[in-house]
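User: I'm curious what two different proteins look like when written out as structure tokens. Can you demonstrate?

Assistant: Sure. I'll show them one after the other, since each token string lines up with its own sequence. Here's the first protein:
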Amino acid sequence: MLALCACANPASTAVPDAGVDAHSHEHDLGVVDTGSFSGPELLSDTGLYSDFATRTIDADVLTYGVRFPLWADGATKTRHLWLPPGTTIDTSDPDAWVFPVGTRVWKEFRVDGVLVETRFMQKLGQAQWERVAYAWRDDGSDADAARDGATDALGTTHDIPSVSDCNNCHRGSADNLLGVSAIQLATGETSEPLAALANTGRLSVPLAEHPSVPGTPLEQAVLGYLHGNCGHCHSEYHPLANLRTIRFRLPLGVIDAADAPALTTLVGSPMHHTIDETTLGIVPGDPESSQMWRRMQHRGDGNEMPPLGTETVDTDAVALVRAWIAELPPSM
């Protein structure tokens, strides 16, 4: 999300971030956001847990991790996916999975070990999703649907997103789910979630090759971070794609790191704003002059990227991206 939402006038005739892309398509699947949530008011009534008191998950639920987690100010997350019996994920386009109607996915957030929220999504119909975050009570007895979100949940600095906030990010995916994708589920672990889905016949078309991220370990770490943290807004699926050509989502099959969209759309590209005296997305070999790196360090002033879901700079990522830009050859 490194150059979208802080633009006050995205339709301006001024030089936009990395130029206008008149050929980008809208959300091909036409994903519908209901704008509201009509499901259970209490998390205990959702049926997500077979035994709510002990937080027991059914055996047919996939508890999974992702290779490149979304930064959430250090909060830890536990992710769960449930697919209706006998259904498969349509993986005919390996970069744009389509999930069966009835799919349910939820994610538990903990801050300093305290369970503060559970985000929940379910697919109600073709290209129609409903979502809400449940805010946990002080005593941990249950969680309540928080349609409008909540600030500083349970006395922490963690903010729970509103239904609208959730949609702002999720609409940047082909079928509204973030993280449940080939690259993200290819964790390389013994209990890899991608392999678990493939081995149980939940993928309609097996992947031709195991997903990989190109480049050196540093390049892989940076391209993966940008893919997982910025790729859902800066993708060809987001409605703003026709106004912004910056792309951080990494498609499958990129062999050379130099061909990754994060480089091909940002190196030497003029930005819409002058921020910290920078005007170009990435200046190879010069992190200080690269606006992408600069914006990662902003919070609360309208120039921050990502613009949602974080109040604290990810210092590890900032250092990682700085090292990456510093190593880029000036001749790029």
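Here's a second, unrelated protein for contrast:
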Amino acid sequence: MYLTREEERIYNGEYGEVLEVAMNLLVSLGEIYGAERLVEISSAQVSGVSYKTIGEEGLNFLKDISKGDVKVAVPTTLNPAGMDLSRYEELNFPRDFVERQLEIIECFKKIGVEIGCTCTPYLSGNVPIYGDHIAWAESSAVSYANSVIGARTNREGGPSALASALIGKTPLYGYHLDENRMPSYTVEVETELKDISHYGALGSLVGRIVKNEVPYFIFKSPISRDKYTKLKALGASLAASGGVALYHVEGITPECKMGRIEIDTSERISIGREDIEEEYYRLNTTEERPDLICIGCPHCSLGEIKEVVDFIVKNNLGRTGFKCDLWVCTCIHIKAIADRMGYTTIIERAGGKVVCDTCMVVAPIEEIGYRNVATNSGKAAVYLPNFCSSNVIFDSTWEVLKKGL
């Protein structure tokens, strides 16, 4: 693998141990996957933030990195933590967990990572442009960046994304190369999809079939309003159930519009209404009432928050409120706008919480006492049983909210 002179000096430890470790990791990845060289990136998104997922070993690793007096070389955002960083006491997070989580956050702050703690960095300022090389971890963010924005990233792990952030480069292989961005499946969606949960169910179904390949979607009925929120839901569940890091949609995603996609029709899948209904049935694992309703996996856009508000206003819940806990998960940037719009007040008067920095998947909700979780997220429905030992109630946004009445 070719290295410039400066890259060689970093590799040989002339810029300190932390950068040496980072460069060695990137070179090792490049050699494994046949990269000819490194390429400069415009941004990074780092995962491995929740104490629930990285534990004591991960915390010690971050402590070692943050002692090295180094800073990230490119704008770098952070994945969701295991708790709301401001309201952890109010939300009953365990004290030991809180202490460890705050230590993790402090480590990232020391090296210059933006503490936005979101899986939707493209909604809060980390917005690459078409063709940018980036190094992003977090499966749904990778899927959105590759597919909807047309930037280029592999599905990085936490350590490799952090190494790229420190060096400002990533190995040139995988989805950074044109030839690896071509579709290998054509998916014809014969039925109309309306709610974002429909797109989550579609992604869950297709992801299991295509694994980590690249699907090309043809929707026979056009995607209705708020198409990018629906593509966010589609990509998130594709990544959760099958490891898909890139998909294309005929007439919508940028590489299709620009004529850069060569369609391989050797593998074709047809999806009808019955297939979506069967996936709904498969994702539901209980008929009990929810202990917790969670909206926002990936984190809510302002439009998704407004949909919750519309439900509350229509059902006059300012008086009666929900009969179970409600979390509307989003990033601190979107919550600030929701605060100004009055949305946060409406939700919290009805007994809900607008929760920042975390989500139901990476938070220790099982320790807080939540067992039955209702969600409109295909991604969460896939992850919750294994990550949180949760029973899942999966449905459309309004139907999920009705279960709390």
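A detail about the second structure: Residues 103 and 273 are 48 Å apart (CA to CA).
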